[in-house]
Design brief:
The chain is of the alpha+beta class and 414 residues long. It contains 15 helices and 16 strands.
Amino acid sequence: MDRYKKVRGMHDIMPGETEKWQFAETVLADSAKLHGYREIRPPVIEERMLFERSIGASSDIISKEIYSFQDRKGRHLALRPEGTASVVRAFIESAPPIPGKITRLYYYGPMFRYDRPQKGRYRQFYQFGVELLGGKHPFFDGEAVALLDFMARKLNITGYYFAINTLGCPKCKSAYTEIVRSALSAKEDSLCEDCRTRLKISPLRIFDCKNAECRESAACAPAVTETLCKECLDHFGEFEEYVKKAGIPCKKQSGLVRGLDYYTRTVFELYVNGDENAVAAGGRYDSLVRELGGADTPAVGFALGMERLISIVNFKLEKTPSVYLAAMGKAAALKGISIVKELRNEGIAAETDYEDRGLKAHLKNADRSGAQWCLIVGDRELEKNEFILKNMVTGEQENISEDTYLKRIKELIK
């Protein structure tokens, strides 16, 4: 019989790992709620054009990596490669924005890109992201970074910093794009094939190329801060004031441009010292809502890669108090139905095995399950109206009456 394997680029998250994910998911969601964000759950399938309009039709994500298909009615659809476009589409579609109102949303779920699989990078991957819509002031950019900083501290991540930069407003960004194109045209021969195409269509993406020669050539281009208008310089300056006042570790990085077309002005990435891959990234995108058919709405947000996050967090998870019921004999198994129900009703994790096994086998199962206590019930114990409670960590055991077993277990858990 054929054995099936997971599809290349996909990954299973098995018990032992899922607990880490659940812990991190809870910390991230609670942190977002604490900062005034509410959850949104957009679908994983959208019109392909949504991503072409937002990310850029010539980007690697759209030209090489997007999972797209036609449905039975011939509509061009795609599995979402990122979350911002879906959130903005839902924001526009749900109701007209109220002038002056700030909308804070967070999302979590799988994204899909046909990327080259490698450690920590998969074709189905998970992102936690936040989007703040309606805020124009540079302090909103600072708030987004401060939220990410708060999450990092809550997860006990150490040795991290934020790379920060600005791309300027659409006018400044367009002007800088032409400056970069002009500066790198003389170095076209040193660029890889992809970057020669980028030079014609979107020169700023050359800064994101993994090829060392391309990045070396891009480093010769002038810094964007040398070309910005006063308003853009002031915006970035106030953002820097915020992160400095908040005590957030930041480093200016002139080559930071982000790989998505919709970013304007502030951009940032979260790094851990010694690792060249960002854990999270984001920035301001003041034109995207309008470009996708909505009202003119300033916005800022970020997305955090869960696989990368899980790999760097030093998890110290506390075990959930749990009891394994070793019920031996039919009468004990019947009694066990009410025992496990009572335990679970009190919020105590409980499991049992209904097969006819001896005590030794039950104790092995209890040990494998990770239970802290084993409640032993057999015919002899039922006759005496008492149970045996065994501590699976120390090996100590005690006799407890049927009437007080629940009270005793609750005392031990406390």
